[in-house]
Amino acid sequence: MVSHQNSLKHFIALSLVSGVGNITARQLISYLGSAEAIFKEKTDTLRKIPGVGPFISSNIKKKDYLALAESELEFIEKYKINSYTFLDQNYPNRLKQCEDAPLVLFQKGGKNLNKKLHISIVGTRKASEYGKHYCNKIIEDIKLNGFEPVIISGLAYGIDSCAHQAALDNDLETWAVLGHGLDRIYPAKNKTLAKKILENGSLITEFSHGSFPAPSNFISRNRIIAGLSDLTIVVESAKKGGSLVTADLAFGYNREVMAVPGRIGDSRSEGCNFLIKTNKASMLEKFEDIVYTMAWDKKQNLNKGHQLNLFEQLNTEQKQLCNWLKDNEDSPIDRIIKQSEIEKSKIPALLLELEFMNLVKVLPGKCYRAI
Questions:
Q1: CB–CB of 360/329 below 8 Å?
Q2: What is the pTM of this model?
Q3: What's the domain range around 318?
């Protein structure tokens, strides 16, 4: 425990150093072996590391960042806040795939950050009744069709608040990603909503306590929303809105992006229509569009018991292929033939049989996925 606390302290200290971004921090740790070693290394040695130079190397030595980190450790212990470095097992796996992911992540609320389905819903702070209605309908339809994803947003006014509240109304877990420390809530009027979120969700941030909601922080916040999500949905957005930034980040992370189309000439629809027009987002008109984009099976969650019974009735080769597909999602048939160790001539017929039993789904490109 002492060792972990010591490691965490140095990670927090490194995240506070002026000029050291998340990518540079990883580079420093890679060169020197640990966050602690960075603060013990000589300035001349630090300066020679690619991407560091005199400015950053002198900054590391200039200020007592370790004392600030000690203060943060006291804060998170007092208020029972979870903290994860990017090397920890419980750090979100989806974020680990992003090269600019936070060095340290703070979480209020005890929810597992590695759930099966993560959907972020974002949009303008000046949401129309149409936008709020559509936001509610998306989440309601997701739940009614048997799916229970985590709903992620940014606790801002408008669509963000609507998404969090709709998730709570439908008994879905929801996470709010903040652009400041966990010693405050912004906007202040959302304190009640934040308390409700903690009953079935989490408040998440990369910022230490005392950090104010500066405008630049919300760009950083948006990348976490995008990085945590399998799918980002934009409901309403101006052409230069923060939601468009989140969508661009999600697109850059190779995650799915969908946008609700709006009326031509409506400023709150310009961003969504632009995303669709430039092929950065799929059009979202109804729940079935999500099913298609995400290759979901609408019966997947509703027929688990039936599927288990069917599985018990399979022959040895059918079970073997089904289990192999569970471990090797979205595999084309040539890969299945080469790697599954099942007699090649039998595989096409076995796949067809499993498809008829609704145990295997055929995806675009003739790839196969176990349901």
A1: no
A2: 0.78
A3: 304-370
